[in-house]
Write a structure and sequence with these properties.
heterodimer; A: alpha/beta; six-stranded mixed β-sheet; five-stranded parallel β-sheet; 11 strands; B: alpha+beta; five-stranded antiparallel β-sheet; 5 helices
Chain lengths: 384, 124
């Protein structure tokens, strides 16, 4: 437990860890769904503080990582147009499309702007009536309500030069798809806390019962992760499979009803492709018919753009928990944060980026054909 | 991007029929939409994501989280200059001279491009 002193409350962390160590009698594999949780786990070496029997598998919860290549290419196409001001969150700037990224589009003269909030993009649209302003609307259930509200505001205020390039995804269908995979090893889930802050927990009891898998709503701070693991392990050891809320300070069972109502007004559920994974039924949102005039795909006729993902990038397997990042041949060699093959290496929440930042010098090379191996113990400080 | 940061409501005002607040995130102040937490009051804390308050948080939890984020440099990641962060991640220094005005960069300033990204070597 050499890193426990780095925890915000080392004594509480020690108690949680002692409890987990005392509870575990058999091997268990838990998947943390949220990319923020993955970074916390790797950054603090939490996986190495846990008993050897508890394996943490990294899930698909990084919105930047799962955005399909063809959506990035559509963004690049739209952002390159001289009549367009293209607005995005900062973490999309270096996500590679086919051959280039938004960073490069700007260097080539495209008017690409980074905003803190989608409402900032709407403000830009009001200030630039002669331009088309497009906001890159990606993300899970946490990010979708702000984008829904922004489109609603555009319609209410009659701002017609604003549109959204939508690639929103939903967590529960992804959990369903992971559990249905024949190669699935996941026995319990740490659900993404902030997704549940918005959506509540209503969709999870059915999933937990259907797949006999405990689901623990978990925050993303180090102690939250330990608490989530403790709940999940306790359930697994008892043979239970219910939904626990280990993040009650931020998650109410009903979520945020106003946000859910706006989501249902502005968006409709649709099948969505996940980068590296493929199409998952009902796993996304698109703008509903009433808001179609604010749909950038239709406005700029980019619906036909299709692309193939590079075969050498194995981010899809990483996102499904089938391999760890260092089991990809390209990891740290042909794929680095400076020259990423896929979004899992470039996103601040990507599993490959987390391994590269915090584990790179400590990893023993692993062949891709090896079964999932636990990474070598962390001996050095994080490599940044 | 899934990061949501706790902040304290400093002031509330109506803007174009929308309830907006000035929110303090441990020293960084931002405009935040309160439409999803319409009864949030001045002095209360909420979890804020991309400019929207999404759920109430008690003061003690909020302060602990903010302190942790500050220690880990996560507030800088969330509120720092995203172009600069992207340039650093790509191994290049800040490539655009006009970050204040957000106008189109002069390609000559950017320098040669290598493999889709501005190359650090090209600028040295």
């Amino acid at each position: 437990m050499k890193y426990i002193e780095e925890f915000q409350d080392p004594e509480l962390a020690r108690r949680l860890l002692d409890d987990i160590h005392a509870t575990v009698t058999r091997p268990w594999a838990l998947m943390e769904v949220c990319g923020g949780q993955t970074h916390t786990i790797i950054r603090h070496g939490i996986d190495q503080l846990l008993p050897d029997q508890v394996e943490l598998i990294h899930g698909p919860g990084c919105p930047v990582c799962v955005t399909p290549l063809e959506v990035i290419d559509k963004a690049l196409e739209i952002a390159s147009r001289p009549d367009v001001i293209f607005c995005s969150f900062g973490d999309m700037l270096r996500v590679p499309g086919t051959g280039r990224d938004l960073f490069q589009v700007r260097s080539e003269g495209g008017d690409v702007r980074v905003v803190y909030s989608p409402l900032d993009a709407l403000k830009i649209a009001r200030q630039n009536p002669g331009k088309e302003v497009v906001f890159f609307g990606i993300g899970f259930e946490t990010t979708a309500p702000p984008n829904a509200m922004t489109v609603h505001q555009a319609r209410k205020l009659g701002i017609r030069n604003f549109s959204l390039l939508v690639s929103h995804v939903r967590v529960p269908p992804a959990i369903e798809a992971i559990m249905q995979s024949p190669s699935c090893r996941v026995q319990g889930f740490l659900a993404a806390g902030h997704v549940c802050s918005v959506m509540g927990m209503g969709e999870y009891p059915g999933l937990a019962a259907r797949h006999r898998v405990p689901i623990v709503v978990t925050g993303f701070e180090p102690l939250d992760i330990l608490e989530g693991v403790r709940h999940a392990v306790r359930q697994l050891e008892r043979g239970e499979h219910t939904v626990d809320n280990a993040y009650a300070r931020a998650v109410r069972p009903e979520g945020n009803p106003a946000a859910i109502a706006m989501l249902e007004d502005v968006f409709e559920v649709t099948d969505r492709a996940w980068r590296g994974i493929g199409v998952i039924p009902d796993s996304g949102w698109r703008l509903s018919e009433r808001y179609r005039e604010h749909d950038a795909e239709h406005r700029f006729s980019v619906t036909d753009i299709t692309t193939r993902e590079p075969a050498e990038c194995r981010s899809g397997e990483v996102l499904q928990g089938l391999i760890k990042p260092n089991q990809c041949e390209a990891f740290g060699t042909t794929c680095t944060p400076r020259n990423p093959l896929g979004a899992t290496m470039v996103s601040s929440e990507g599993a490959c980026a987390a391994y590269y930042l915090y584990r790179r010098l400590d990893l023993t090379p692993v062949r891709a054909t090896d079964p999932i191996a636990r990474t070598a113990p962390l001996e050095a400080s994080p490599v940044v | 991007m899934c990061l949501a940061v706790p902040g304290r409501v400093v002031e509330i005002a109506e803007e174009n029929g929308t309830r907006m607040a000035t929110v303090d995130f441990g020293g960084v102040v931002k405009e935040v939409c309160l439409e999803y937490l319409p009864d949030l009051q001045v002095g209360e804390y909420a979890i804020v994501h991309v400019g929207f308050a999404l759920q109430r948080l008690d003061e003690e939890s909020a302060k602990q989280t903010l302190e942790l984020f500050a220690q880990l440099g996560m507030l800088q990641e969330e509120f720092g200059d995203p172009w600069e962060q992207a340039a650093e991640a790509g191994g290049a220094p800040w490539p655009f001279e006009d970050d204040e005005s957000d106008t189109v960069a002069d390609p000559a300033v950017v320098g040669p491009v290598d493999g889709g990204h501005v190359s650090r070597e090209a600028r040295q």
